[in-house]
Design a protein that fits this description.
By secondary structure, the protein is of the alpha/beta class. Bound molecules: coenzyme A.
C-alpha cells in the first residue's frame, strides 16, 4: 500500500466514523451533559485534547455543565477542632485564592483550546456543613450542596455559555464550604435532569465490565472491602445519579486519547457506563436507518447467506424492517414480508452484526417480532434457512414442506438447499414467545 493509499484509507475511516456518529448527534442535541473533570488532568499533556473534545460536543449542540475538582486543596486548610468543620479564618483567603487559581487554569485551557466555548463561572451553588465529615475523612470536602440556582444555569446554557463550577459554595452565614467535585456534579446532573453524568478521571474504573445497572453496581460495592474511598465515592455517585433520573453515567480514563468522544459517539464505548434504562430495544425502521441497515446486510449478502437487497429496494421497503438497536446503533435487523391472503408473514433478511453474534440478539429480535405478529392477528410466521441448528428452531419454529408455503412464495422458491420453517401463532401459548 502506497503512502497516498494509506492516507486515503485513514480519511475514509474518519468519514465513516463521522457518519456513524450522526444518530448520536441527533439524539444529544440540546441535551445536558454534566462533566466532572479531575483537576490532575489539567496539568497533563492530555488537557488540550480534552478541551477540544468538549468543544466538539458543545459545537454539535450538547449543553455542557463543567465541574472541576481542586487537587491543591488539602485538609490543613480546615479547622477540624469543632463541628461544623470550617475553613479556618486564617486560611480563608488562601483557600479562596487557590480555588480561583484552579478555576483560572481551567478557564484558560478552555479559552485556548475550546474553539469558541464561552465558559462562565459564577455563584451557582449554596452549600452547608457536611455532617458526614468525620466519618468520610475525605481529603478536604467539608460541605454538601444545599441549593442550586437552576434558573441561572439554564439561562446561561440558553445563551450558549458553558457554566463552569469549582467545588465550593458559600453558606447562608458567609462560610466557605468545600464540596467534593463528584458529589457536586451528581447533584447538578440530578437537578438539571441531565442526559449524562460523565466523570473524566485520570485512571480507569476498578470494574472491568463495560456496562452495569445500579443494583448490580451496589451489590458489587457491598462486596468490596479494599476499594479506595475515592473510587467508592465515584461509583456511588454514578449509582445515585442513575437512581435519581440521570439516564447514563460514565467513568472514563481521560488520559486515553479520544476517551470522551469514543464513549459518547460510538457504540463500543471505552469506559464504565452505569444505566438503569433499557438502552437496547427492538423497533420499526425509519428512512434515516437505511445506511446502517444496508451496512448490516452487506456482509451476509456478500457471502450469499441472504438474498441481495439494493439500497433502492430498502428505500421502497424500509417500513418492513425491524431493528435491534443499542442506543442509536443498529445491531440486528430482519424484514417482514406479508402474504395477507394466507395471514402469513415471512421473516427474511435476518442479520446480526458480526461482533454481536451468538449473544441472543437474533433470538430476541425474532421473539419480539413474533409477539408483534400475534398482536396483529397473523396466523403463521415462516422462515427459510439452510443452517442446521438454526436460530428459528431455537425460537420454536418447526420444519415443514414446500406445500406449506403461501402460493406466491412457493412460485419464487428457488433455493432448494434452504429448509422451510413455520411458526404457528394460533397454537402458540403465551410462554412460547415471551422469553
Ligand atoms: C443467523 C444470525 C442472524 C443469528 O444471530 P445471533 O444473534 O448470532 O443469534 P443468537 O445468538 O440468538 O442464536 C445463535 C444461534 O444462531 C444459529 N445460527 C448461526 N448461524 C446461523 C444461520 N446462518 N442461520 C440460522 N441460524 C444460525 C446458531 O446455531 C446458534 O444456535 P445455538 O445458540 O444453539 O448454537 C447471525 O448468525 C447472522 O447474522 N448470520 C449471517 C446472516 C444469516 O445467515 N442470516 C440467516 C438467514 S436465514
Amino acid at each position: 500500500m502506497t503512502r497516498r493509499d494509506e492516507v486515503l484509507k485513514n480519511q475514509q475511516s474518519l468519514v465513516r466514523a463521522l457518519r456513524g456518529s450522526l444518530p448520536y448527534l441527533e439524539e444529544f442535541h440540546h441535551q445536558v451533559f454534566v462533566v466532572c473533570v479531575n483537576g490532575e488532568l489539567l496539568q497533563r499533556d492530555a488537557a488540550p485534547k480534552i478541551m477540544e473534545e468538549l468543544a466538539l460536543l458543545h459545537r454539535v449542540g450538547v449543553q455542557l455543565v463543567l465541574v472541576h475538582d481542586s487537587q491543591l486543596l488539602n485538609q490543613s486548610s480546615l479547622d477540624t477542632s469543632s463541628f461544623p468543620v470550617a475553613v479556618s479564618l486564617r486560611d480563608l483567603t488562601a483557600v479562596q485564592q487557590q480555588i480561583a487559581a484552579i478555576n483560572w487554569k481551567f478557564l484558560t485551557k478552555l479559552c485556548l483550546y475550546g474553539h469558541g466555548i464561552m465558559p462562565l463561572s459564577g455563584h451557582f451553588v449554596t452549600a452547608r456543613a457536611d455532617e458526614r465529615f468525620n466519618i468520610l475523612e475525605m481529603d478536604s470536602a467539608n460541605g454538601v450542596v444545599q441549593e442550586v440556582d437552576l434558573v441561572a444555569i439554564r439561562e446561561t446554557l440558553q445563551l450558549r455559555y458553558t457554566p463552569l463550577l469549582a467545588p465550593w459554595g458559600t453558606g447562608r452565614q458567609g462560610h466557605l464550604w468545600i464540596l467534593e467535585a463528584r458529589e457536586l456534579a451528581t447533584e447538578l446532573a440530578i437537578r438539571l435532569r441531565a442526559k449524562k453524568l460523565i466523570l473524566l478521571e485520570n485512571i480507569s474504573s476498578p470494574l472491568i465490565e463495560k456496562d452495569r445497572n445500579t443494583s448490580i453496581l451496589r451489590q458489587w460495592l457491598r462486596q468490596q472491602t479494599s476499594i479506595s474511598k475515592i473510587n467508592r465515592l465515584r461509583l456511588e455517585c454514578m449509582a445515585t445519579a442513575c437512581e435519581r433520573g440521570v439516564t447514563r453515567c460514565h467513568w472514563l480514563d481521560a488520559t486515553k486519547e479520544g476517551a470522551l468522544l469514543t464513549e459518547t459517539l460510538t457504540s463500543g464505548g471505552i469506559g464504565l457506563m452505569v444505566t438503569n434504562t433499557a438502552y437496547r430495544q427492538v423497533r420499526a425502521a425509519k428512512p434515516s436507518d437505511i445506511p446502517q441497515v444496508w451496512g448490516l446486510l452487506s456482509g451476509p449478502i456478500k457471502d450469499a447467506s441472504i438474498v441481495m437487497r439494493s439500497t433502492s429496494y430498502l428505500e421502497q421497503h424500509i417500513e418492513r424492517y425491524r431493528l435491534f438497536c443499542q442506543d442509536e446503533d443498529v445491531l440486528g435487523c430482519c424484514e417482514l414480508i406479508g402474504y395477507p391472503e394466507q395471514q402469513t408473514v415471512e421473516i427474511a433478511a435476518l442479520s446480526v452484526a458480526l461482533a454481536y453474534r451468538n449473544q441472543g440478539i437474533g433470538r430476541e429480535l425474532i421473539s419480539v417480532v413474533l409477539r408483534e405478529l400475534k398482536k396483529q392477528g397473523t396466523k403463521r410466521a415462516i422462515a427459510l434457512s439452510s443452517h442446521e441448528d438454526n436460530v428459528f428452531i431455537n425460537c420454536g419454529f418447526k420444519e415443514r414442506s414446500l406445500a406449506d408455503l403461501p402460493p406466491d412464495k412457493r412460485c419464487n422458491y428457488d433455493s432448494p438447499q434452504s429448509k422451510i420453517y413455520i411458526y404457528s401463532l394460533i397454537e402458540a401459548g403465551k410462554d412460547l414467545i415471551t422469553d
